[in-house]
Amino acid sequence: MTKEQIKSFFSKTEFKKELRIVAEKVLNNQRISEADALLLFEKASLSFSGTLANFIREQLHGDHTYFNRNFHIEPTNVCVFACKFCSYSRLYAHRDEGWELTMQQMVDIVKGYDGKPVTEVHIVGGVHPKMNLDFFCDLIEKIKDHRPDLHIKGFTAVELDYMFRKANLSMEEGLKKLKASGLQSLPGGGAEIFDEGVREIISGDKVDAKGWLDIHETAHKLGMHSNATMLYGHIENYSHRVDHMKRLRDLQDKTKGFNTFIPLKFRNHNNDMSNIPESSIVEDMKMYAVARIYLDNFPHLKAYWPMLGRQNAQLALSFGVNDIDGTIDDSTKIYSMAGSEEQNPAMSTSELVSLIKQVKRVPVERDTLYNVIKDYSEAIHKEVDPMLN
Ligand code: V47
Ligand code: SF4
User: Fold this and answer.
1) How many CB atoms lie within 10 A of CB 296?
2) Which phi and psi (to 5°) does residue 260 adopt?
3) I want to staple 169 with a disulfide (CB 3.0 to 4.6 A). Which of 122, 174, 176, 195 is the partner?
4) Are 143 and 163 contained in the same domain?
5) What pLDDT was estimated at residue 93?
6) Angstrom distance (rounded) from CA 323 to CA 365
7) Of 180, 201, 291, whose CA–CA distance to 242 is shortest?
């Protein structure tokens, strides 16, 4: 649809006037307010928000849809914290039921990718009291010694906060140390929901919202990029979601250091919140759409396919999403243990490419910082559409 066609769609009088005003702001590239975002959550149909989100997505990226070739290292699932939504961790007292990889086992995982064109390792896990800052600096150095070209994205603000406090270092000192060892960017985990009341109930004992935001701000000041997540679809309400995104948008205005926002759908298998039903797919698509519209200063919006499932990730590409993470190579257990239909998350590059092509978008392989490694648009244009024969 052209901008004019979209404008005339939104001027239909059957839409409430207050919604038409929000649409007009978006179409004129103006920022929407928190009240507008709430209105979209509460009053707009999925097609209304979806059309606006897709308009923004196509303005920013056209049909380009990014993925990367990555794998995870999950050093341990032993954790000193007890988040109620977590299906993955084992308390230190029950550590015999969990796993703890040795330094050598982790280096061997990296060596297992020798000769394979992966570009990123994502390191994330539980907060183990014995795996400290020096241990992880050592790990990063060993990975870099073996494979200097591999981008290391590692450690949620939760893991970092614990590491730095134990080492008696400020956030800046700790991050500088990790950066000097070879850490290049931070993943977005641990953000959950910033609202103090909700956070207290679902994950009261770990770093608070201010701590999470301060760590990311410090990383950005040191020249490191990061991602941001939000765990939604549990006990929070729409205002909490908007408040969460507001705190992120404000920080992004200051630092411009976030690459991607990743809404994470709460999965209810085998955790202390299993009584809470999971959100519907309509609700998930609405979440992506409102995020794309509200977070105007975030360049990318990611649907994490191991959590959402492949088909829903495809669908999300029409609701503002322009990134579906990477090949993963069956190297993460967080979501399979929480009940995702992706019990062995791994996709080859050609599977990812065809997943994106099936919904008529253009696959682009990227590195962690969204530099283009391979653009598949030419390959698509040369293809003959079988429907035309
Ligand atoms: O912080 C844990 C979430 C996060 C459940 O930055 C759950 O590229 C849903 O942040 N249901 C860790 N979510 C994973 C993460 C991540 C994943 C992929 C890419 C990136 C990135 C970051 O997983 C945790 C928590 O919010 N989580 N349990 C659950 N039951
Ligand atoms: Fe530990 Fe992270 Fe699970 Fe919370 S979500 S219990 S911090 S592993």
Assistant:
1) 16
2) -140, 140
3) 174
4) yes
5) 73
6) 10
7) 291
Contact 186, 153 (CB under 8 A): yes
Closest ligand to C-alpha of residue 155 is 1
pLDDT in tens, 66-88: 999 999 999 999 999 999 999 88
DSSP designation for 129: T
The pLDDT score that the predictor gives to residue 4 is 82
Q: How confident is the model at residue 287 (pLDDT cuts 50, 70, 90)?
A: very high
120/133 Cα distance (integer angstroms): 21
Q: In a 3-state reduction of DSSP, which class is residue 382?
A: helix
Phi, psi of 5 (to 5 degrees): -65, -40
Q: What are the structure tokens assigned to 297, written together?
A: 């200063």
For 102-137, how does the pLDDT look when each residue is reduced to its tens digit (9 = 90+)?
A: 999 999 999 999 999 999 999 999 999 999 999 999
pLDDT of residue 340: 66
Q: Which domain holds residue 8?
A: 3-61
Q: Does the Cβ of 89 fall within 6 Å of ligand 2?
A: yes
198 and 251 share a domain?
yes
Closest protein CA for atom 2 of ligand 1: 86
Final residue in a domain of this structure, among 21, 37, 61: 61
On whether both 146 and 246 belong to a single domain, the answer is yes
Give kind and range of the element (H or E) at residue 172: helix 171-181
Same domain, 31 and 75: no
pLDDT digit string, tens, across residues 338-349: 666 666 667 888
Of how many residues is the chain composed?
Answer: 389
Determine if ligand 1 sits within 6 Å of the CB of residue 85.
yes
